[in-house]
Amino acid sequence: MATAKQGDTVHIHYTGTLDDGSVFDSSEGRDPLTITLGSGQVIPGFENAALGMEVGETKKARLDVDDAYGERRDDLLLDVPREQLPDDLEVDIGTPLQLQQEDGSAVPVTVTALTEESITLDANHPLAGQPLTFELTLVAIQD
To answer: Could you give the CA distance from residue 86 to residue 100 in angstroms, rounded to a whole number?
Structure first.
């Protein structure tokens, strides 16, 4: 039977959970995720877990922080003076925003603190600093 290898386009059903058992993402009720192994479309640990799987196989993989979204970084916390924000922008703690970079790309951030003078934005991925567990089922290897 064929096994998934670098360069293969694979279709995978998955459920991702945190250490407390809560589900943070799942393909349940949707089409399986389609990725090309080795292309960097998903986090390294997810891709590595899929390598060597056979069609129909299900397995659990626990990813250390480094194989997931990495450690939380304090240098990705940004204090922005309120006068630099649009006057009509209403934010609360937890509000998702996007910062525009010089190259035109957008960086997702979350408001984590508010004062009269500034807001604090966190550009860390929401799952940074956490080990993740995935249950993967390899549905197909595309020809």
So the answer is: 14
Cα separation, 53 vs 73, whole angstroms: 33
Locate CATH 2.40.10.330 in the chain.
74-122
Q: State how far the Cα of 50 lies from the Cα of 138, in Å rounded to an integer.
A: 8
9-70+128-141 maps to CATH 1.10.3430.10: no
> In this predicted model, what pLDDT tens digit does every residue of 46-86 receive, in sequence order?
999 999 999 999 999 999 999 999 999 999 999 999 988 88
How many angstroms separate the CA atoms of 51 and 4, rounded?
5
Q: Where does CATH 3.10.50.40 sit in the chain? A: 9-70+128-141
In our burial notation (b when 16+ CB lie closer than 10 A, e otherwise), range 45-70 reads bbbebbeebeeeeeeebebebebbbe
Is the pTM value of this prediction over 0.70? yes
CATH 2.40.10.330 fits 74-122, yes or no: yes
